[in-house]
Fold this protein.
Amino acid sequence: MRVSILAAATAALAAAPACAAEHVVLMENIAYAPTELRAKVGDTIRFVNADGTNHAVFVATRGHGVDLGMQKPKAETVLTLGKEGRFEVECVNHPNMRLVVVVTK
Amino acid sequence: MSRLSLGLAAATAIGSIAAGIAFAGPERVKYPEKFRQDFVMFNTVDRPDLKAVRLVFINKAADAEAKAGQPLPEGSILIVEQRKAKLDDKGEPLRDAAGRLIPTDEIMTILAMEKRKGWGEAYPADKRNGDWEYNVFKPDRTPNVAVKMDGCFSCHLNRADRDFTFTYFKNRQDRGN
Protein backbone atom coordinates (compact mmCIF):
# COMPACT_ATOMS: atom_id res chain seq x y z
CA MET A 1 0.00 0.00 0.00
CA ARG A 2 2.80 2.41 0.95
CA VAL A 3 4.44 1.71 -2.37
CA SER A 4 1.29 2.47 -4.35
CA ILE A 5 0.68 5.72 -2.41
CA LEU A 6 4.26 6.79 -3.04
CA ALA A 7 3.94 5.88 -6.72
CA ALA A 8 0.72 7.86 -7.03
CA ALA A 9 2.27 10.89 -5.34
CA THR A 10 5.33 10.70 -7.58
CA ALA A 11 3.15 10.46 -10.68
CA ALA A 12 1.08 13.42 -9.55
CA LEU A 13 4.19 15.51 -8.96
CA ALA A 14 5.58 14.54 -12.34
CA ALA A 15 2.33 15.51 -14.06
CA ALA A 16 2.04 18.88 -12.31
CA PRO A 17 3.21 21.81 -14.44
CA ALA A 18 6.17 23.79 -13.22
CA CYS A 19 5.16 27.02 -11.51
CA ALA A 20 4.83 29.82 -14.02
CA ALA A 21 6.51 33.08 -13.10
CA GLU A 22 5.26 36.58 -13.66
CA HIS A 23 7.78 39.13 -14.90
CA VAL A 24 6.99 42.82 -14.50
CA VAL A 25 8.15 45.28 -17.15
CA LEU A 26 7.76 48.99 -16.53
CA MET A 27 7.07 51.44 -19.33
CA GLU A 28 8.82 54.46 -17.93
CA ASN A 29 10.61 57.50 -19.38
CA ILE A 30 9.79 56.27 -22.90
CA ALA A 31 11.61 52.98 -22.30
CA TYR A 32 10.93 49.46 -21.15
CA ALA A 33 12.62 48.41 -17.92
CA PRO A 34 14.29 46.02 -18.11
CA THR A 35 15.31 46.02 -21.77
CA GLU A 36 16.17 42.31 -21.79
CA LEU A 37 14.30 39.48 -20.17
CA ARG A 38 14.73 35.71 -19.95
CA ALA A 39 11.68 33.61 -19.21
CA LYS A 40 10.21 30.13 -19.49
CA VAL A 41 7.33 28.88 -21.59
CA GLY A 42 4.15 29.48 -19.59
CA ASP A 43 5.47 32.56 -17.81
CA THR A 44 3.70 35.87 -18.16
CA ILE A 45 4.96 39.41 -18.59
CA ARG A 46 2.96 42.17 -16.95
CA PHE A 47 3.52 45.52 -18.66
CA VAL A 48 2.84 48.52 -16.42
CA ASN A 49 2.60 51.94 -18.02
CA ALA A 50 4.18 54.29 -15.51
CA ASP A 51 4.48 57.14 -18.02
CA GLY A 52 2.03 59.94 -18.67
CA THR A 53 1.63 58.99 -22.32
CA ASN A 54 0.19 56.03 -24.24
CA HIS A 55 2.43 53.07 -24.94
CA ALA A 56 1.98 49.71 -26.63
CA VAL A 57 3.14 46.11 -26.68
CA PHE A 58 3.77 45.13 -30.27
CA VAL A 59 5.82 42.20 -31.55
CA ALA A 60 6.67 41.98 -35.25
CA THR A 61 9.04 39.02 -34.93
CA ARG A 62 7.78 36.27 -37.19
CA GLY A 63 6.12 33.44 -35.30
CA HIS A 64 5.60 35.63 -32.24
CA GLY A 65 3.53 38.46 -33.73
CA VAL A 66 1.17 40.08 -31.27
CA ASP A 67 -0.33 43.49 -30.67
CA LEU A 68 -1.97 44.18 -27.32
CA GLY A 69 -3.38 47.52 -28.45
CA MET A 70 -2.87 51.00 -27.06
CA GLN A 71 -2.03 51.12 -23.35
CA LYS A 72 -3.03 54.28 -21.50
CA PRO A 73 -1.10 55.73 -18.54
CA LYS A 74 -1.37 53.53 -15.42
CA ALA A 75 -2.92 50.71 -17.47
CA GLU A 76 -1.50 47.18 -17.40
CA THR A 77 -1.45 44.41 -19.98
CA VAL A 78 -0.33 40.81 -19.72
CA LEU A 79 1.48 38.76 -22.33
CA THR A 80 1.57 34.99 -21.87
CA LEU A 81 4.64 33.28 -23.29
CA GLY A 82 3.35 30.26 -25.13
CA LYS A 83 6.39 29.16 -27.12
CA GLU A 84 10.15 29.14 -27.15
CA GLY A 85 12.18 31.69 -29.06
CA ARG A 86 13.59 35.18 -29.11
CA PHE A 87 11.50 38.17 -29.99
CA GLU A 88 11.47 41.93 -29.65
CA VAL A 89 8.72 43.94 -28.05
CA GLU A 90 8.35 47.47 -29.35
CA CYS A 91 6.10 50.44 -28.73
CA VAL A 92 4.10 51.47 -31.77
CA ASN A 93 4.30 55.13 -30.75
CA HIS A 94 7.94 55.25 -29.69
CA PRO A 95 10.30 53.49 -32.11
CA ASN A 96 13.23 53.50 -29.70
CA MET A 97 11.36 51.59 -27.01
CA ARG A 98 12.59 48.00 -27.34
CA LEU A 99 12.60 44.94 -25.13
CA VAL A 100 14.29 41.67 -26.09
CA VAL A 101 12.63 38.54 -24.68
CA VAL A 102 14.23 35.10 -24.76
CA VAL A 103 11.88 32.24 -23.91
CA THR A 104 13.16 28.75 -23.14
CA LYS A 105 11.48 25.52 -22.01
CA MET B 1 8.83 80.25 -77.58
CA SER B 2 5.77 82.42 -78.01
CA ARG B 3 3.79 83.83 -75.13
CA LEU B 4 0.94 81.52 -76.08
CA SER B 5 3.02 78.35 -75.93
CA LEU B 6 4.65 79.49 -72.68
CA GLY B 7 1.23 80.05 -71.23
CA LEU B 8 0.04 76.65 -72.39
CA ALA B 9 3.11 74.96 -70.92
CA ALA B 10 2.61 76.73 -67.60
CA ALA B 11 -1.07 75.84 -67.55
CA THR B 12 -0.25 72.19 -68.31
CA ALA B 13 2.33 72.09 -65.52
CA ILE B 14 -0.05 73.67 -63.02
CA GLY B 15 -2.79 71.33 -64.17
CA SER B 16 -0.57 68.28 -63.67
CA ILE B 17 0.40 69.35 -60.16
CA ALA B 18 -3.22 70.13 -59.30
CA ALA B 19 -4.32 66.77 -60.68
CA GLY B 20 -1.68 64.99 -58.65
CA ILE B 21 -2.84 66.69 -55.48
CA ALA B 22 -6.50 66.22 -56.30
CA PHE B 23 -6.08 62.49 -56.87
CA ALA B 24 -3.97 61.90 -53.78
CA GLY B 25 -5.92 59.82 -51.31
CA PRO B 26 -7.06 56.31 -50.46
CA GLU B 27 -8.89 55.80 -53.75
CA ARG B 28 -5.49 55.36 -55.43
CA VAL B 29 -5.15 52.05 -53.56
CA LYS B 30 -7.43 49.45 -55.09
CA TYR B 31 -8.18 46.04 -53.66
CA PRO B 32 -5.97 43.66 -55.66
CA GLU B 33 -8.25 41.61 -57.89
CA LYS B 34 -5.86 38.64 -58.00
CA PHE B 35 -5.06 38.78 -54.32
CA ARG B 36 -5.19 35.03 -53.72
CA GLN B 37 -2.80 34.26 -56.59
CA ASP B 38 -0.47 37.26 -56.44
CA PHE B 39 0.24 37.58 -52.73
CA VAL B 40 2.15 35.62 -50.12
CA MET B 41 1.48 35.61 -46.38
CA PHE B 42 4.62 36.39 -44.39
CA ASN B 43 3.40 36.97 -40.83
CA THR B 44 0.47 36.74 -38.45
CA VAL B 45 -0.18 39.11 -35.57
CA ASP B 46 -2.54 38.17 -32.74
CA ARG B 47 -4.90 40.90 -31.54
CA PRO B 48 -6.37 39.44 -28.35
CA ASP B 49 -7.92 42.81 -27.44
CA LEU B 50 -9.97 42.66 -30.64
CA LYS B 51 -10.43 38.84 -30.52
CA ALA B 52 -8.83 38.85 -33.94
CA VAL B 53 -5.83 37.61 -35.90
CA ARG B 54 -4.12 39.73 -38.51
CA LEU B 55 -2.75 37.87 -41.51
CA VAL B 56 -0.13 39.95 -43.28
CA PHE B 57 0.56 39.60 -47.02
CA ILE B 58 2.84 41.14 -49.64
CA ASN B 59 2.55 40.92 -53.42
CA LYS B 60 4.93 38.27 -54.77
CA ALA B 61 6.64 40.62 -57.22
CA ALA B 62 7.69 42.99 -54.43
CA ASP B 63 8.72 40.11 -52.18
CA ALA B 64 11.00 38.79 -54.91
CA GLU B 65 12.61 42.18 -55.48
CA ALA B 66 12.92 43.30 -51.84
CA LYS B 67 16.25 43.14 -50.01
CA ALA B 68 17.00 43.19 -46.30
CA GLY B 69 17.71 46.67 -45.01
CA GLN B 70 16.53 48.36 -48.21
CA PRO B 71 13.32 50.32 -48.77
CA LEU B 72 10.61 48.21 -50.36
CA PRO B 73 10.48 48.38 -54.16
CA GLU B 74 8.07 50.57 -56.06
CA GLY B 75 4.83 48.67 -56.61
CA SER B 76 4.90 47.05 -53.18
CA ILE B 77 1.48 46.28 -51.74
CA LEU B 78 1.01 45.13 -48.16
CA ILE B 79 -2.34 43.74 -47.06
CA VAL B 80 -3.54 43.02 -43.54
CA GLU B 81 -6.53 40.72 -43.46
CA GLN B 82 -8.05 40.93 -40.01
CA ARG B 83 -10.04 37.82 -39.20
CA LYS B 84 -12.14 36.86 -36.22
CA ALA B 85 -10.38 34.48 -33.83
CA LYS B 86 -11.96 31.19 -32.77
CA LEU B 87 -13.70 31.65 -29.42
CA ASP B 88 -14.65 29.28 -26.61
CA ASP B 89 -18.19 29.00 -25.27
CA LYS B 90 -17.52 31.95 -22.96
CA GLY B 91 -16.55 34.13 -25.87
CA GLU B 92 -12.84 34.14 -25.09
CA PRO B 93 -10.22 33.40 -27.78
CA LEU B 94 -9.02 29.82 -28.04
CA ARG B 95 -5.29 29.19 -28.38
CA ASP B 96 -3.31 26.50 -30.15
CA ALA B 97 -0.54 24.42 -28.56
CA ALA B 98 1.93 27.30 -29.01
CA GLY B 99 -0.39 29.78 -27.36
CA ARG B 100 -1.33 31.46 -30.64
CA LEU B 101 -4.82 32.65 -31.51
CA ILE B 102 -6.60 30.64 -34.17
CA PRO B 103 -8.02 32.60 -37.12
CA THR B 104 -11.42 31.75 -38.56
CA ASP B 105 -12.38 32.40 -42.18
CA GLU B 106 -14.45 35.42 -41.16
CA ILE B 107 -12.86 38.65 -42.35
CA MET B 108 -13.47 41.73 -40.19
CA THR B 109 -11.58 44.33 -42.20
CA ILE B 110 -8.81 44.63 -44.79
CA LEU B 111 -6.02 47.19 -44.47
CA ALA B 112 -3.86 48.01 -47.47
CA MET B 113 -0.80 50.13 -48.19
CA GLU B 114 0.72 50.60 -51.62
CA LYS B 115 3.89 52.34 -52.77
CA ARG B 116 4.06 54.11 -56.13
CA LYS B 117 6.64 56.59 -57.35
CA GLY B 118 5.56 60.15 -56.64
CA TRP B 119 2.50 59.28 -54.59
CA GLY B 120 3.92 60.95 -51.50
CA GLU B 121 4.61 64.27 -53.20
CA ALA B 122 1.12 65.54 -52.48
CA TYR B 123 1.64 65.32 -48.71
CA PRO B 124 3.39 67.75 -46.36
CA ALA B 125 6.67 66.59 -44.82
CA ASP B 126 5.15 66.11 -41.37
CA LYS B 127 2.60 63.67 -42.81
CA ARG B 128 4.31 62.10 -45.80
CA ASN B 129 5.08 58.38 -45.55
CA GLY B 130 7.59 58.19 -48.38
CA ASP B 131 5.51 57.24 -51.42
CA TRP B 132 3.03 55.09 -49.50
CA GLU B 133 -0.72 55.50 -49.66
CA TYR B 134 -3.32 53.70 -47.53
CA ASN B 135 -6.83 52.36 -47.87
CA VAL B 136 -9.22 50.25 -45.80
CA PHE B 137 -11.71 47.80 -47.26
CA LYS B 138 -14.81 46.11 -45.94
CA PRO B 139 -15.05 42.31 -45.92
CA ASP B 140 -16.83 42.54 -49.31
CA ARG B 141 -13.64 44.23 -50.67
CA THR B 142 -15.29 47.61 -51.24
CA PRO B 143 -13.55 50.69 -49.78
CA ASN B 144 -14.59 51.64 -46.28
CA VAL B 145 -15.01 55.37 -46.88
CA ALA B 146 -15.92 56.00 -43.23
CA VAL B 147 -12.31 55.38 -42.18
CA LYS B 148 -9.96 58.37 -42.15
CA MET B 149 -6.41 57.54 -43.17
CA ASP B 150 -4.74 60.15 -40.94
CA GLY B 151 -4.26 57.50 -38.26
CA CYS B 152 -2.45 55.25 -40.74
CA PHE B 153 -0.08 58.05 -41.75
CA SER B 154 0.68 59.20 -38.19
CA CYS B 155 1.24 55.70 -36.83
CA HIS B 156 3.39 54.46 -39.73
CA LEU B 157 5.41 57.68 -39.61
CA ASN B 158 6.92 56.22 -36.41
CA ARG B 159 8.61 53.58 -38.54
CA ALA B 160 10.27 55.85 -41.11
CA ASP B 161 13.50 53.91 -40.55
CA ARG B 162 11.75 50.74 -41.77
CA ASP B 163 10.24 52.32 -44.86
CA PHE B 164 7.09 53.03 -42.85
CA THR B 165 6.22 49.35 -42.38
CA PHE B 166 5.73 47.62 -39.04
CA THR B 167 6.37 44.03 -40.08
CA TYR B 168 7.78 43.42 -43.55
CA PHE B 169 11.01 45.45 -43.37
CA LYS B 170 11.84 44.00 -39.95
CA ASN B 171 10.99 40.45 -41.03
CA ARG B 172 13.41 40.75 -43.98
CA GLN B 173 16.08 42.17 -41.69
CA ASP B 174 15.55 39.29 -39.26
CA ARG B 175 15.81 36.85 -42.16
CA GLY B 176 18.99 38.51 -43.36
CA ASN B 177 18.31 38.58 -47.08
